[in-house]
Structures are given as C-alpha cells and as structure tokens.
Amino acid sequence: MPEFRRPFSGFSVDDTAKARSFYVDVVGLTVNESDGMLRIDLGDDHFVIVYPKGDAHEPASFTVLNLPVDDVTAAVRELASRGVEFARYDGMPQDEDGVMKGQGPDIAWFTHPAGNVISVISA
C-alpha cells in the first residue's frame, strides 16, 4: 500500500485573481500563489489547491470546502457583514441567518465568486 504523505483536495475556478481576493479579503484565509494555482491555508498544515479552468469551469453542485467554526451563527453574521450571501435551499430548515440546526451539525452554505459551494459548519 502506498504511503500517502499529506492528502489534499482541490477545485477549479474561472478566475484565480478573483478567488484569491475573495478568500483573503472576505473570508480571511491565507492564500499563496504558485504556478498559476492558489494554495489556501486551512491551518494545522492542511490546505486546498484552487486551479484555473477559465471558461471551461463549471461550478460544483456540491460542497467543495467546509470551514469548521465554534459558532456557525456568529461566523455567518460576520461573513454576511462582509457581503457574503448565504444560500437558501428548499426543504432545508434554515433559520433567519440561513443556518440549518438540529439536522446534524449546524451548517450554512454560500458560493464563492466562481459558483462553487462552501459551508460554514460547527467544529
């Protein structure tokens, strides 16, 4: 069996400059850029790669990145104050902030500029 060092995930965007600005300026994460790709630092030596696909990019219809927090409602309100719009899904019991509670971990979803789904989820 191969020995995997540090597995990581990745997803595409149509515009890495726009994605970098969003993740740094709005979400508040550390982002490094190399070889035309972004490396979003998730802490504890974990990261996700964001790669450009330009016009060939199609947003994922599922959550590509989960951001664990201690207080989902507080995080949602902070991000909303920075212009993030949280998604509302039919049939999902979400509160006035867009947070679904009581159906597993507290969770809320938003899309980044390229349309991929991101969640804020209780740690």
Radius of gyration: 15 Å
Number of helices: 2
Provide the structure class. Answer: alpha/beta
Look at the structure and give the CATH class: Alpha Beta
Mean of all residue-level pLDDT scores? 94
CATH topology: 2,3-Dihydroxybiphenyl 1,2-Dioxygenase, domain 1
Low-confidence stretches: none
End-to-end gap: 31 Å
Beta-strand residue fraction: 25-35%
Tell me, briefly, the overall form.
globular
Strand element count: 7
Biggest β-sheet: count, sense, barrel? Answer: 4 strands, mixed
Q: Tell me the helix content.
A: 10-25%
CATH homologous superfamily descriptor:
2,3-Dihydroxybiphenyl 1,2-Dioxygenase, domain 1
Count of domain modules: 1
Sheet with the most strands: spatial strand order: 1-4-3-2
Q: What order do the helices and strands follow?
A: EHEEEEHEE
CATH level-two architecture: Roll
Which SSEs are present, and which pair or pack?
Blueprint: E1 9-13, H1 16-26, E2 30-34, E3 37-43, E4 46-52, E5 63-69, H2 72-81, E6 107-111, E7 117-122
Describe the structure in your own words:
With 123 residues, this protein is α/β, with parallel strands linked by helices. The protein has one domain: 2,3-Dihydroxybiphenyl 1,2-Dioxygenase, domain 1 (Roll). The strands form two sheets. It has a four-stranded mixed β-sheet, with helices on one face. A three-stranded mixed β-sheet has the order 5-7-6. It is globular. 25% of the residues are buried. The mean pLDDT is 94. This is Catechol 2,3-dioxygenase-like lactoylglutathione lyase family enzyme.
From the structure above, extract its key features.
single chain, 123 residues, alpha/beta, 2,3-Dihydroxybiphenyl 1,2-Dioxygenase, domain 1, four-stranded mixed sheet, 7 strands
